[in-house]
Write a structure and sequence with these properties.
By secondary structure, the protein is α+β, with helices and mostly antiparallel strands. It has a single domain, classed as Electron Transport, Fmn-binding Protein, Chain A (Pnp Oxidase, Chain A). The protein has four helices and seven strands. A seven-stranded antiparallel sheet has the order 2-1-5-6-7-4-3. Strand 3 and strand 4 form a beta hairpin. The protein is elongated and about 60 Å long. The protein starts with 11 loop residues before the first helix and ends with a helix. The relative contact order is 0.19.
Length: about 200
């Protein structure tokens, strides 16, 4: 991923917090002579060395996935940024947050391990509900999926949040995003702006 220096994020805790909060992404690998992508939710291993998930066995991506070097991409909030929001001249652009994870993929079929992955994913995403669903399903359903475990080799993280603009322009972009209802991106910009301001004090 192309990352100009002022958009690069290197803080490990920040990166893994982002991954945990934006864990639905793409696993990209080769299937035959084509690049293939599947959109799935991921988990981080407790020691933060692996990314874990599962695919349907009917998905052809899993057939050649074992032992491949793969790319996982995750994306946070994003939106169009109009130059009309700046003081002075500017060009149209897009603000966004993204993480790319490169790693070595292994597949697994162990039923208990698959159940653990499905249960963890369910519990994580059900936790936001007042009456969460407790994982209860026919264990035979696990035979329809395969697990994937990606050992992380490299992580790239980019926050393109108008850091190359003046403080005034950044604040005006935040204000306009809130007016448009793009609150998640506005919040991300505000956190980043305050963090940079605090570090400069």
């Amino acid at each position: 991923m192309y990352i100009p220096k002022h958009f690069e994020i290197t803080d490990v805790d920040e990166i893994f917090d982002f991954i945990a909060d934006n864990s639905f992404g793409q696993i990209i690998s080769n299937v035959g002579e084509k690049v293939f992508s599947s959109h799935i939710p991921f988990l981080i291993s407790e020691d933060k060395t692996k990314i874990i998930g599962h695919l349907a066995k009917q998905n052809p991506q899993h057939i050649e996935l074992d032992d491949q070097e793969v790319l996982v991409t995750l994306q946070g909030p994003h939106d169009y940024i109009s130059p009309s929001w700046y003081v002075g001249s500017g060009v149209p652009t897009w603000n966004y947050q993204a993480v790319h994870i490169y790693g070595h993929c292994k597949i697994f079929h162990d039923t208990e391990k698959l159940k653990s992955v499905v249960d963890r994913l369910s519990n994580k995403h059900e936790s936001a509900f007042q009456a969460p669903w407790v994982p209860e399903y026919n264990a035979s359903m696990l035979s329809a999926i395969i697990g994937i475990e990606i050992t992380i080799n490299e992580i790239q993280c980019k926050y393109k949040l108008s850091q190359n603009q003046s403080s005034q322009n950044q604040l005006q972009v935040i204000e306009q995003l809130r007016i448009l209802g793009s609150s998640a991106l506005a919040d991300a910009m505000e956190r980043n702006f305050n963090s940079i301001s605090d570090n400069h004090e």
